Amino acid sequence: MSEEPTGSVIVATDGSPAAAVAVRWAADEAVLSRRPLRVVHVQPSATFGLPDVPPPQAEEARSVEARRILDEAVAQLSTHSGLEVTTDNILGEVPRVLRELANPGDLLVLGRRGRGRFAELLLGSTSLKVAGTAKGPVVIVHGDGHGPRGEIVAAVAFDIDQTAALGFAFAEARRRGAVLRAVHAWDTGEIFSPYAETAPVVVDPANTLSELMEPWREANPDVKVAEEVVGDHPAAALSKASERADLLVLGTHHRGALGQFVFGSVGHAVLHHAHCPVAIIP
């Protein structure tokens, strides 16, 4: 069920400290997955920050700045022996360019915070829009600079196809020799709300989770799997689980409480409060 990746690891940088962390994470991922690394800088055509400079000179100055940013990003990768690295300065509108870069065969990596328009992208609703509409996987890197924790957390819902997300999570766990922890958030307060439109369907979440994960265990005998059912809101449960994880993996096609991830408050909460990188898988 878990396939080795193809394509490239693509990381966007604007020269900010958070982008530098993302570049290093992307380089590590490229080495682990034996893929080339492509470092890109998105240069808006408008002359933001240079109001008194004529357009031609402003564009040239921004191109020089972009080259400096890319060179600095590559310079920090000297310890990644054998890694194939290319760089690109892309002209265009940042969210659109990033969506176009997120192809199914590639992995797009972004820092949580940035400068200027990048900061707006990675802290506001645009980041959720990029991740939720991307055709390929997107990882938003943030955390506290911890070392390897030995665990990949996969958010699991019961009512949708999670083949892509679980396949990605198992592949990451295998490459790292990490435990795959499958977490299902069982928000009983929401399920048994007196304002619910329909009567709740009572199931045993632990048993359902075990049944869902069984074929994945059989197909991936080399990956240790742990299962956890949490009686809490999905945002709180996933943020807590991320404290002990190297990567938190979520699919974008969820429904129900956990399905609020991409466009609702859960997504904002997880992206702002997760303690490890978050992979969003279409």
UniProtKB/TrEMBL annotation:
Signal sequence region: none
Source organism, top-level taxon: Bacteria
Membrane-spanning residues: none
InterPro entries: Rossmann-like_a/b/a_fold (IPR014729), Universal_stress_UspA (IPR006015), UspA (IPR006016)
Domain (UspA): residue spans on this chain: 9-142, 152-282
Pfam families found in the cross-reference section: Usp
Family listed: Belongs to the universal stress protein A family.
PANTHER family documented for this protein: STRESS RESPONSE PROTEIN NHAX, UNIVERSAL STRESS PROTEIN UP12
Protein name: Nucleotide-binding universal stress UspA family protein
